[in-house]
Amino acid sequence: MDLFEYQARDLFAKHGVPVLAGEVIETPEAAREVTERLGGRAVVKAQVKVGGRGKAGGVKLASDPADAVAKADAILGMDIKGHTVHKVMLAETADIAEEYYVSFLLDRTNRTFLAMASVEGGVEIEIVAEENPDALAKIPVDANEGCTPEKAAEIVAAAKFPAEIADQVADVLQKLWTVFIKEDALLVEVNPLIKSGDGKIIALDGKVSLDENAEFRQPDHAALEDKDAANPLEAAAKAKNLNYVKLDGEVGIIGNGAGLVMSTLDVVAYAGEKHGGVKPANFLDIGGGASAEVMANGLEIILGDPDVKSVFVNVFGGITACDEVANGIVQALELLKSKGEVVSKPLVVRLDGNNAELGRKILTDANHPLVQRVDTMDGAADKAAELAAAK
């Protein structure tokens, strides 16, 4: 889960990272009072989860409260790379002497944590990495040891920070590491980390991405979700504890196990090439417990997608036997009917593995007019694509 800048700033402040004062507003007129509290001047910053705000005109300096109102009015409602600005942060101004870059992230390739730092901050770090790679220090951080004072000093030295600010930067790095670990983050980035005119090191802009898999131990993170921007189907699926991602296609997908679902997406996309370019409409992994309720929840989400023209249920029975899945499908359709849900989209079901024959028999005996049983993955994908193309 990516955070807005103001949310990242709040997490930084929570863990002692030096930041500037700031407040978030949603109406232009609110900028007047906030700017007065900030000393009469403010930086008005669009709150969107995308880079390039400054170039797009989403960051402006306001010289007085009236100017802040005008600047906020100009920024609110802007479209920045497809993101509409609904909030702006008014931040305290700073006398910037130098701009730097620091971050901690999960390095999946090398299965470790990575610190990155550069004395060339204030620009997109990808540009620095491409044009002057030697200016970007990359230091692995052992998960068991963390960013100790020694490790922080190593990062500072590798990035060639000036000696007069080395201790301050090292201290900020250790506090950012605390944010990274305590908040279960996948990325903590400060760009720029500035040296102010009076020699202080301050996190001027921040980016934080949190690990959604850690929500069970981070209940406070629920309040950080951007519910306005969330896809309503994905939000509904999350409320039902379903692992669902909306895609741009016509064939709804339900499977048990992420690997099987990913394979199903590929097979359906391939089959769809023969049927007018039909594509998968979603990723939905119901996991190992395909009870009637879980299946009903999954079907309810997928059938509620107006883009879906057909549904492909692809299950390999393991711990959960195929007869349980088949019973779940039959009961789910009855459950949806009893709730007043109109089920009008065809379902193609492929069962394999534990008790597959019994599961197939259950579906055959149920003889539901919208359920077709196809026993091969390729065949079922082709049928689902064909039915979607015909709608």
What does this structure look like?
The protein is of the alpha+beta class and 391 residues long. The protein folds into three domains: 21-91, 2-Layer Sandwich (Dna Ligase, domain 1), CATH 3.30.1490; 96-224, D-amino Acid Aminotransferase, Chain A, domain 1 (2-Layer Sandwich), CATH 3.30.470.20; 232-390, Succinyl-CoA synthetase domains (Rossmann fold, 3-Layer(aba) Sandwich), CATH 3.40.50.261. Helix content is 36%, strand content 25%. It contains twelve helices and 18 strands. Strand 7 (96-107) and strand 8 form a beta hairpin. It starts with a helix and ends with a helix. The model has no long low-confidence stretch (mean pLDDT 93).
Keywords:
391 residues, alpha+beta, Dna Ligase, domain 1, D-amino Acid Aminotransferase, Chain A, domain 1, 3 domains, four-stranded antiparallel beta sheet
- The CATH superfamily label of the largest domain reads Succinyl-CoA synthetase domains
Sum up the overall morphology in one term: elongated
Low-confidence runs (pLDDT<50, min 5 residues)? none
**Biggest sheet character:** 6 strands, antiparallel
Q: Calculate the terminal CA-CA distance, rounded to whole Å.
A: 36 Å
**DSSP strand (E) fraction?**
15-25%
Find the structural class using helix and strand composition. Answer: alpha+beta
How many structurally independent domains? 3
CATH topology of the largest domain: Rossmann fold
Q: Can you give the helix content as a percent range?
A: 25-40%
Query: If classified by CATH, what would the architecture of the largest domain be?
Result: 3-Layer(aba) Sandwich
User: What is the tally of helical segments?
Assistant: 12
Number of strands: 18
Overall average residue pLDDT: 93
CATH class of the largest domain: Alpha Beta
Topology as H/E string? HEHEEHEEEEEHEHHEEEHEEHEHEHEHEH
Round the Cα radius of gyration to an integer and report it. 26 Å
